[in-house]
Structures are given as structure tokens and as C-alpha cells.
Design brief:
The protein is α+β, with helices and mostly antiparallel strands and 262 residues long. It contains nine helices and nine strands.
């Protein structure tokens, strides 16, 4: 209880305990930063993979649609060729509505109801030159897109059309997203489709900003957010789509939090 003993105790605390606490805080901070960096890197890789996968499925839809048009062109109107039925089954839910508009003759409805969208001069030129076009339309359910494919066959030809199911393109209803992840598809600051668990406030936030590579940290402190832009202009004559993936930051840092609590 003497002053010397008190000074020795204070000196022990200052030389042993305080540096240990400082080292612990430094380690936690560096570990948190490393986990966040790794998680952001994985998120960037996963959203790119999801976007490129959707673009591949759109390309497959295009080629299948071209085969549908070539198979039905000139076929009797009384029946649908078996090849067309098989191709329609291959498309699954990616194209809920299919139709063929021949150069000569009336429209052939294959599945659902679909009207040929009104095209601008630039869109008609792109379809004629490139052979495929994605058109943005407005439906009762909200923003939608129609894929048009030029079909060239001897003595005939026309345009095959399909309504695009965004959710099927990105497999939002098939549990194909990485764990604890949600995804939204954005076009011109409007959400085309989102996975079921996407938080509404975050969706509104990412729909109201111009996305760039450094915007993730400013959008939400509760989520890690990253995006990948799908270029559609050159091939499909359409505005680009942006896939935005998000993950709750707390879940990604839970292992570190458990370690700290113990």
C-alpha cells in the first residue's frame, strides 16, 4: 500500500496491459479490413459471373428464337411443327411469350400474347444490320423487354419475337445466387427485377445513384455492394443493364465478432 508499490503496479499495467490492449485493437482493425477487402473481391467476382451468365442465356435465347422462326416459317397455320414445340420447351420460363411475324402473311402466335413493338428508325436499322435487337417496352407489370431476331430463309423470312423474363435470365427464382447474396437488375435508374430478399431501402438507394466502382461504400453501411455492367448496345442496340449484388456486412464479419466475444 506504499507509494512505491502503487507506482510498481501502475508501471506494470502501463508496460504490460496497455500494449497488449493496443496490439489487440490493432489486430482486430487490420483483420476487419482484410476480411472486408476479401469479401469485396469475392463479391465483385460473383456479380461479374452472374452478369456474364445472364448475357450467355440471352445469347442462347437469341439463337433458339432464330431456330424457332426458321422452323415455323412457311409451315401450315393449322398446327405447330414439333421442332418448334421442342424449342419452346427448351426456352422454359426465359421467354413467357413467343411470336413470329413473317414478311408475308399474318403473325404466328407460338406462346402467350405478344405484339410487335413500334421501332424507331435507328432500331429498325440495327435489326436489319445486326440481326437482333432488344426493345424496352412498358407493360402493366412494369418495365419489360422484347427480344427481336431477324430470320432469313429462302423465299420467306420475318422477325421472331420473345418477351424477356429478367428473373429467369438471372436465375433469381432458382436459388442459384451465392449464399447470403441478393441481386438486382437496374436499367436507367429503375429496377427491372430483384431477388426476393433484396432490402427495399437498398434497392431504392442503388436505383437513385449513378453507379461507379467506388460507390459501394457510400450506398449502405449495412451491406457490401458491387455491380457489373452488361453491354448491350453493340449487339442488341439497347441501353446497358447493370447487375447489382449485395451482402450483409454483419454476416461476413460474424467469425471475427465471435472471436472478439470469446
Amino acid at each position: 500500500r506504499s507509494k512505491v508499490a502503487l507506482r510498481m503496479a501502475v508501471l506494470f499495467v502501463g508496460c504490460a496491459v496497455v500494449p497488449l490492449i493496443g496490439l489487440t485493437l490493432l489486430t482486430i482493425g487490420e483483420t476487419t479490413a482484410a476480411l472486408q477487402e476479401q469479401a469485396q473481391g469475392r463479391l465483385h467476382h460473383d456479380v461479374k459471373a452472374a452478369a456474364m451468365g445472364a448475357l450467355e442465356r440471352l445469347s442462347l435465347l437469341e439463337e433458339t428464337l432464330r431456330l424457332v422462326g426458321a422452323s415455323i416459317d412457311g409451315a401450315p397455320r393449322a398446327s405447330t411443327p414439333p421442332a418448334v414445340e421442342r424449342l419452346g420447351q427448351t426456352l422454359g420460363t426465359a421467354a413467357p411469350s413467343l411470336a413470329y411475324f413473317p414478311i408475308r402473311g399474318p403473325m404466328r402466335a407460338i406462346r402467350g400474347e405478344l405484339e410487335l413493338p413500334t421501332l424507331t428508325e435507328a432500331q429498325r436499322s440495327h435489326l436489319g444490320n445486326a440481326g437482333q435487337l432488344v426493345v424496352s417496352v412498358t407493360s402493366s407489370a412494369g418495365p419489360a423487354h422484347v427480344l427481336l431476331v431477324r430470320v432469313d430463309v429462302p423465299g420467306g423470312g420475318g422477325t421472331a419475337a420473345a418477351a424477356v423474363n429478367h428473373r429467369a435470365l438471372f436465375e433469381l427464382d432458382d436459388d442459384q445466387l451465392p449464399p447470403i447474396s441478393d441481386l438486382c437488375l437496374i436499367e436507367n435508374s429503375r429496377a427491372l427485377a430483384c431477388s426476393a430478399g433484396a432490402p427495399g431501402d437498398v434497392v431504392r438507394q442503388i436505383s437513385s445513384v449513378t453507379l461507379d466502382r467506388d460507390s459501394a461504400d457510400s450506398m449502405s453501411g449495412r451491406f457490401l455492394v458491387d455491380h457489373w455492367t452488361i453491354p448491350l448496345k453493340a449487339r442488341y442496340g439497347a441501353e446497358p443493364w447493370t447487375a447489382v449484388m449485395m451482402r450483409p456486412e454483419a454476416a461476413l464479419l460474424e467469425p471475427l465478432h465471435r472471436f472478439v466475444r470469446t
